[in-house]
Amino acid sequence: MNEERYAYRVRQALNHGLKDIPPAASRRLEAARHLALGRQKQAAPQMALAGFGGPSFRLGSHVPYLKQILAIAALLLGMWISFYWHSVQYVTALEEVDSALLTDDLPPDAFLDNDFFEWLLDDSPED
């Protein structure tokens, strides 16, 4: 009963102040009311299906930064794949040079390479 009496008093107070509102503002308020009621009628079917995972269910509404998280995850995955691919290529190139050194199939130009001389100096045993 208290809620009904409170609602009645609120309605009386709003109706009492209704006379003080200019006619232009009253028309704008009435247009806004009609617009809100129209939107409420459009949203009512979606709200009825909300519990069943209907069209009102959107994953983005539950995770506010989902697009950014997915973009960062895709970027990190791409970087990891690139690093892995380059490391595999580097190891393959080293395997080819090592196997050529072991089988003495190394071309003479390889002995003129400055990196080869640095490698020989770095791998020499220290006395």
The averaged pLDDT comes out at: 79
Tally of individual helices? 6
Strands, count: 0
Beta-strand content? under 5%
Largest sheet: none
Radius of gyration: 38 Å
Helix content: over 70%
End-to-end separation: 102 Å
Shape: rod-shaped
Report the order of strands and helices: HHHHHH
Category by helix and strand content: mainly alpha
Low-confidence stretches: none
Give the secondary structure arrangement, pairings included.
Elements: H1 2-17, H2 23-49, H3 59-62, H4 66-102, H5 108-111, H6 114-123
Write up this protein:
- This protein has 127 residues and is mainly alpha-helical.
- The chain contains six helices and no strands.
- The N and C termini lie far apart (102 Å).
- The mean pLDDT is 79.
In short:
This protein has 127 residues and is an all-alpha fold.
List keywords for this structure.
about 130 residues, mainly alpha
